[in-house]
Amino acid sequence: MKGMIEMSNGNLGRWTTSLCLVLVLALVLASSASGQGSKSKTKSKTTKTASTVPTEPPLRGSNTKEGASQAAKSAKVLNEIMGIADKGIPRDLLAKAECVAVFPNVVKAGFIIGGQGGRGVASCRTPTGWSAPAYFEIKGGSIGLQAGASSTDFVLLFMNESGLNSLLSDRFELGGEASVAAGPVGRTTSATTDAKMDAEILSYSRSKGLFGGVSLKGSVISPEKSDMEGTYGKGVTAQTVLTANKNRAPSEVQIFPNTVTQYSARTR
């Protein structure tokens, strides 16, 4: 009898141990399944959140031919001017500029009362580099003895926030809403005056192979609507373009911001 009781107790002990092991295993499996479900939900939530983050759409109009031509001409002018040994635009000025605008082949014609007009391209710094190029026109009048006609390239550096804001406006006058001064030339700006350094815009010109600073007071700059619409589409403003990543622009017009980047890669 005593032996039977001891055997029964032994079986009971083994059965109890087995039951405990089964329960522990069940708890472990349940916990693991719960963890995998939580990770799956988290991953699904993360994926869903990432997929709902909006991306900026590309800006593209129906006719980029003129825009591409203006961007290429402006890039060529900037490359040529920066290639002038010891007499180009100082690199340290470009490093400080908030925007760069180039107006190639601006025509000045007349005899006693003359005028000038042309189209150009501008790009401004953004947190990701130079912006998509926006299109502008420059017009102005002058009085003087101007026989015949001449074609001149102009480069404008917008040196501070005020200069930048003027470019983002619908229309502004150089020397009026925005102060302008003839820009210095050379490798550095160590010999420049405070007056020039305080100007919102520094201007340069190249005509018949001669390059130097020039004052453009009285000239008016405004967005060139036909180039803007053809390149980016109807209703797209210069402000939108000049704050947009260059990669949103058509690839054929990115030559201008890419060229500016060669001489100053600083982001805003």
Put the structure in a nutshell:
The chain is of the alpha+beta class and 268 residues long. It is built from eight helices and ten strands.
Overview of the molecule:
- This protein has 268 residues and is of the alpha+beta class.
- The chain folds into 2 domains: 1-53; 65-263, no CATH class.
- It is 41% helix and 25% strand.
- The chain is built from 8 helices and 10 strands.
- It has helices at 2-51, 65-82, 91-96, 161-168, 194-198, 225-232, 238-242, 255-263; strands at residues 99-109, 113-126, 129-130, 134-143, 149-158, 172-173, 180-182, 201-207, 210-213, 220-223.
- Strands 1, 2, 3, 4, 5, 6, 7, 8, 9 and 10 form a 10-stranded mixed sheet that branches.
- Strand 1 (99-109) and strand 2 (113-126) form a beta hairpin.
- The longest helix has 50 residues, at 2-51.
- The protein is globular.
- The model is unreliable at 1-8, 38-54 and 143-147 (pLDDT under 50).
Identify the notable features of this structure and list them briefly.
single chain, 268 residues, alpha+beta, 2 domains, ten-stranded mixed β-sheet, 8 helices, 25% strand
Reconstruct the topology from this structure.
Blueprint: H1 2-51, H2 65-82, H3 91-96, E1 99-109, E2 113-126, E3 129-130, E4 134-143, E5 149-158, H4 161-168, E6 172-173, E7 180-182, H5 194-198, E8 201-207, E9 210-213, E10 220-223, H6 225-232, H7 238-242, H8 255-263
Parallel strand pairs: 7-8
Antiparallel strand pairs: 1-2, 1-5, 2-3, 2-4, 4-10, 5-8, 6-10, 8-9
